[in-house]
Hints:
By secondary structure, the protein is an all-alpha fold. 62% of the residues lie in helices and 0% in strands. The chain contains seven helices and no strands. It has helices at 19-43, 55-65, 74-95, 99-117, 123-133, 136-139, 147-165.
Amino acid sequence: MTYFAKMKGTTTSPPMVGVSEVVWSWVGAFLGISLVAWINYQVLEGTGRLLLIAPFGASAVLIFGAIKSPLAQPRNLVGGHVVAAIIGVACYKLFAQYPWLASSVAVATVIAAMHLTKTLHPPAGATALFAVVGGERIHALGFSYAILPVGAGVLILLAVALLFNNIPRTRRYPEFWF
C-alpha cells in the first residue's frame, strides 16, 4: 500500500447514537463538570488553589460520551492524568528557559509513559502541556499540581461517572479497572 493510500482509511464512520445516549452523555458531563466547577468556584475561591482545568472537559467527553472506550476507563483516566501532571511539571522545571522544548518534551514523554503504563488517556496530553504553559499560578504549585487540581479533580469526575453511568440499564461503566 502506498503512503498516501493509507490516508483513505479502512472502515466507514460508526453509526450515530440514539437520542437516549446523547441525553445520558449530556447530563453526565454536566453533572461531573458542575461538581468540579462548583468546588473550584465556591469552596476553593480565594484560597489560591484550583480544581477546574481545561483537560477535564476532554476527559468528560470520554467518561460520559464514550464509556466503552479503553481510553475512558478508570486506570486510564486517573493514571494518565497523574502521570502527565508529574511529567509536565518535571519538564517545566528542567526546561523552563525553553518553553517550546518543555512543551514538546512533556507531551511526547507523556505519550510514551502512558503507553508503557497502559494508561493512555488523550486529555492527559493537555494536562502535561498545561503544567508547562499554565502560567505562574500553575508553576507555583510544583509537583502538588499532580494532587490538586489533577488527582482530586479526576477522582471527583470518576466518582460521578461511576454513580451516573450505571443508572440506565443500557450503560455500564467501567469496562475494566486494571
